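Mods, move this if it's the wrong board.
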Amino acid sequence: MLTKIFKVAGAVMAIIVVIIGYVFADHINFKSGAVPVLMYHGIGYATTTEWGNLLVSPELFEVHLKYLKDAGYRVVSVEELGDRFSTNKAVEKYVAFTFDDGYENNYRYAYPLLKKYGFTATFYIIRNALGRDDYMSDEQIKVMLKDGMKFGSHTMSHSNLTLIDKSQYVREIQGSKMLLEQRFGFDVESISYPYGAYNEDVVKEVVGARYKFGVAGKYGINTADSFNDSPYAMNRIGIYTDCAGDASAFAHTLERAYFVGYLRYRGIDLVEMKKIFKKHLTF
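Not the wrong board. Structure tokens:
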């Protein structure tokens, strides 16, 4: 009897080992074609509490950059990433940086550090905020452009595009692109939706305005398949004050994103499951 039990247990263990080996290999294969797009806001030092968790210190930001450099990642702009996905080029160990809102501290702190490590990024500008207190000026943007930094639209006024009427969101989407292009002389290829909010009608307008890519607020990783399905709603990973506090924590943030992306690829969406549980299992 014990012999049979041991045989069955051994067979079960062998099956488990095979399954674990398959999942591990499948996950590694998935990672080779998956790219995190990191979402930052402010890089600097808090003088008030108004930043909430949107401000990352320059020292911590450099920890992130150094980790990526040491780990052999290639850092690209959203525009280059989109082009690579569109043409089926290799993206293994690629990552993209994005900065929303166009804060002046991006110029003062983020830009020099990106330049130090030989990295680039895409900065999303609120057109009506240009030159205002705490926001980048024309001159600062021109300097960054010369060093290969990319810029995209964060609309005219940072309105939630899903909560305003069509005439307003058309102006927000088209106007910001046109005015940035006229002002700086570069093609605005991508847009970041304020508050990460978009819908089918908004995307149609973005396509009609001749943007090539869009980044949203949905947590997740990007693959050629997800990009080709929705190039105007690329997933991002928010990097905030209260996460990725050192190199190991930042590495964990990336690995978690890969794992969540892999499960979603295999039909298990942990983000949606969490929303369902939160909605129906509130005590």
